[in-house]
Amino acid sequence: MKLTINGKEFEAPGALSVTALLAHQQVKMPDMVTVELNGEILERQAFESTVVKDGDRVEFLYFMGGGSMNLTESQIERYSRHILLPEVGGKGQEKLLAGKVLLVGAGGLGCPAGLYLAAAGVGTLGIMDADVVDLSNLQRQIAHATPDIGKPKVDSAAAKFKAINPDVTLRTYRERLTAANALGILRDYDFVIDGTDNFASKFLVADACHFAGKPYSHAGILKFDGQMMTVLPGQTACYRCVFTAPPPAGAVPSCSQAGVLGVLAGVMGTLQATEAIKFLLEQGDLLTNHLLTYQALQASFRKIPLKRNPKCPVCGEAPTLTELVDEEPPTCACKPGERCPV
Ligand SMILES: [Zn+2]
Fold it and tell me: Is 282 found in the same domain as 139?
């Protein structure tokens, strides 16, 4: 019995239902295939009961929310749970694969964010971190493992992200973000995740994203509480609209002084990754003009409305910060000569 499948002649072994034919042809993801039989689309419910006949023309069509996809079979399988979502589909997955996200910090926030972004198929991930993995990091920085102690965090994180998904292009920057390097690096990215752990860096990330016009997700964690917000520079309330300047040195303890629940970093970093994915997909409502706070001990979230601040030093009516400058070094309560844990 001769069939024409996807334009090619095929000698079928005998009478086959469409379901059996899909299996026989080793069609991957048969649930996502639409079948056209002799020029007519075949209802999925009819796959089992329809038996192909000699001379039939069969086309297997990947039918995913319209339009063709440039995904390989293995990508279709890898991202199938995304592609099944109408809000993502093949087109959305292509947007993710074309997306470029910079993780500033490969620590408690950057690790979970990066793992999920890599798994999601965000095509380019930049990882910026000057530090090496320390034993005290492993309680929450889940991209690093015990054998990585002493290795640069960027290398350790890049290896894990690549292992999850070889589709992802990784760029590593083993340096701190500074006023000098920020704009040159940010230029190449669509979205920035602030995974830094000190106020000077958080203000620098916020200011650099403002001047580079790059959307970013801010998050901060301390003890059992986290907070986050997403900023579209020039359009929505920014970090400096809310927190106009860093607190005085020592006024707020750091995680290395006050402690932090490890899993809290995972919750907040994962929420940041969600924002990046929504931004790349152009789906849903971003966490803009709101500060989301999470109190782990109470299992409570609060979403506090924010407005742009006319007195904001970067995006207000009369900005006082008109170019990128380094904030003072990380604020901590160390005395001169002490080893600073921040
Ligand atoms: Zn502002």
Answer: yes
| Ligand 1: centre distance to CA 336 (Å) | 33
Is residue 289 assigned to a domain? yes
Rounded distance from Cα 100 to ligand 1 centre (Å): 24
Whether residue 174 is found in the same domain as residue 291: yes
For residue 129, the CA-to-ligand 1 centroid distance in Å is 26
Assess if residue 324 is contained within a domain: no
Sequential DSSP letters for 196-256:
--SHHHHHHHHHHHHHHT--EEEEEEEBTEEEEEEE-TTTS--HHHHS-SPPPTTSS--HH
Name the residue range of residue 256's domain.
99-305
Residues 242 and 287 occupy one common structural domain: yes
Do 47 and 132 belong together in one domain? no
What does pTM read for this prediction? 0.79
CA-wise closest residue to 189 among 167, 165, 205, 166: 205
In tens, the pLDDT along 213-234 reads 999 999 999 999 999 999 999 9
